[in-house]
Design a protein that fits this description.
Length: 262
């Protein structure tokens, strides 16, 4: 299995990342001729996914959006889809019954720690999208994927699945929970041969990180690595160097998640 590589000129290299493959997976998902649904596809990483999927020859791309009029990319099919609304999720699964790949990308974040006065409300709101949204979509589309031959499920997670410095406390917890969900789904969907891929990365240059003065990958870079990993049959893509280091450090005497934020 080849490793996912990127040129140093375009960002951190992935040379140190070990591919994580499912030995039970017989055939990796292919983008060419796939029918793909991307949630939150009107902007940011979701839009980059939609564009790259079309460039790689996907037969159809459903661009899920809370407000479909904000989907302006040529070549995609706009689909009204707020992942926190079960009736819209069910309607999407009925309309997009030809889907072979679901990309659970929609997500929200809010700065703040668990000791903030409103942290319960914030946490519930974030979990509704980042955890229950992914759960609802996965349940609604599992039968669709099965009928269409297995296909794939790609969940957009984060390096904060494994660290929580308290600055984005509820968001980080939601990504930890969504990582656990993704691992369970990989096992539960193995029988129907659905490839389940977890995408983890640090900062990406989108609206979500506007105002954060930190190094950021481009959405295009992350999406290319994610889709390369999917087509290579990987279960997990660690899309940048920070993420690789954090994951590799989990077994260190003092793992990164114990280090207080500077
Ligand atoms: N940017 C980063 O640094 C970074 C790093 C790691 C992981 N991620 C993850 O990457 C994913 C995409 O983030 P992004 O950076 O592209 O953020 P973004 O630019 O803020 O875009 C978020 C997208 O999610 C959609 N969305 C939010 N709530 C939704 C809901 N209830 N139903 C359907 N769509 C909803 C938004 O739609 P509207 O336009 O309607 O708001 C928008 O299309 C998220 O899961 C995020 O957690 C981002």
């Amino acid at each position: 299995m080849s490793q996912v590589q990127a040129s140093p000129a375009r960002g951190p290299t992935l040379a140190t990342s070990l591919p994580v493959c499912n030995p039970l997976q017989k055939e990796a998902m292919k983008i060419k001729d796939a029918v793909v649904l991307v949630t939150g596809a009107n902007r940011g990483i979701g839009l980059a996914f939609a564009r790259e999927l079309l460039a790689r020859g996907a037969r159809k791309v459903y661009a899920g959006a809370r407000d479909p009029t904000t989907v302006t990319e040529a070549g995609v099919q706009a689909l009204q889809l707020d992942v926190t609304r079960p009736e819209q999720v069910a309607a999407a699964a009925a309309r997009a019954s030809d889907v072979t790949l679901v990309i659970n990308n929609a997500g929200i974040a809010q700065p703040g720690g668990f000791l903030a006065a409103d942290s319960e409300d914030t946490t519930r709101r974030i979990f509704e999208t980042n955890f229950f949204g992914v759960l609802g979509m996965s349940k609604a589309f599992a039968p669709v994927l099965r009928v269409n031959g297995g296909g794939g499920l790609l969940n957009v997670l984060s390096v904060v699945s494994w660290v929580n410095g308290g600055e984005l406390a509820a968001y980080s917890a939601s990504k930890s929970a969504a990582w656990s969900l993704t691992n369970a789904l990989r096992n539960e969907l193995a029988a129907q041969k659905t490839q389940v891929l977890a995408l983890h990365m640090a900062y990406v240059d989108t609206d979500l990180t506007r105002g954060f003065e930190v190094p950021k990958a481009s959405p295009e870079q992350i999406v290319q690595r994610a889709l390369n990993g999917l087509e290579a049959g990987l279960d997990e893509v660690l899309a940048d160097e920070i993420t690789q280091q954090v994951k590799a450090g989990m077994t260190a005497a003092r793992p990164g998640y114990l280090t207080p934020a500077a």
